[in-house]
Amino acid sequence: NAGVTQTPKFQVLKTGQSMTLQCAQDMNHEYMSWYRQDPGMGLRLIHYSVGAGITDQGEVPNGYNVSRSTTEDFPLRLLSAAPSQTSVYFCASSYSQGTADTQYFGPGTRLTVL
Amino acid sequence: GENVEQHPSTLSVQEGDSAVIKCTYSDSASNYFPWYKQELGKGPQLIIDIRSNVGEKKDQRIAVTLNKTAKHFSLHITETQPEDSAVYFCAASRGNNDMRFGAGTRLTVKP
Hints:
- The complex is a heterodimer.
- Chain A is mainly beta.
- Chain A contains no helices and 11 strands.
- In chain A, strands 2, 4, 5, 6, 9, 10 and 11 form a 7-stranded mixed β-sheet that branches.
- Chain A is globular.
- By secondary structure, chain B is an all-beta fold.
- Helix content of chain B is about 0%, strand content about 55%.
- Chain B contains no helices and 11 strands.
- In chain B, the strands form 2 sheets. In chain B, strands 2, 4, 5, 9, 10 and 11 form a 6-stranded mixed β-sheet that branches. In chain B, strands 1-3-8-7-6 form a 5-stranded antiparallel β-sheet, with no helix packed on it.
- In chain B, a hairpin with a 7-residue loop joins strand 9 (about 85-90) and strand 10 (about 100).
- Chain B is globular and about 40 Å long.
- Chain B starts with a strand and ends with a strand.
- At the A-B interface, strand 5, strand 9 and strand 10 of A face strand 4, strand 5 and strand 10 of B.
């Protein structure tokens, strides 16, 4: 049971480039989410999904796209990277779709946009 | 929306001492209050949580207390050990999709 996995671990982009951060979980969780972590600001929710085919915006969605074609995978896309998107990104999953419950976090992707 | 404030931002204690981290929240409808531990280079991991119908919860050396009237909750770690050194985050929410995190507390336990 690998839990939540994320790739890549590190990435450097130039302004305007695009990329996809991968996230997968093998716990059959319906709820998945993406957070960004910036110094002194804790974690902020970017997008979330309550099941395959269903996604919605979180607190800071601008500049990011998501899709959920399977229960296991929840990729995060940056269409045109900006320096303000330099951050550490965490994917998380939870058994509960609505009621707040334990979230299991991946190891993170450290992204630098030059 | 919910706003969570966490104090202190850094905390240094001697091994064996107790550590207390405090959080306040603004949304009286929040009903779930988890605490996460994040070690260097890793993702946050849940260590304890409490729901609004409970005032206190304990798990070995870790305890959490909740005061709904004052809208604050605290993490207590007793008999601290060097492996407790990490960044701790509190959070408050009504559901998974509106969870708000505190800014974190860096705890250092000196041997």
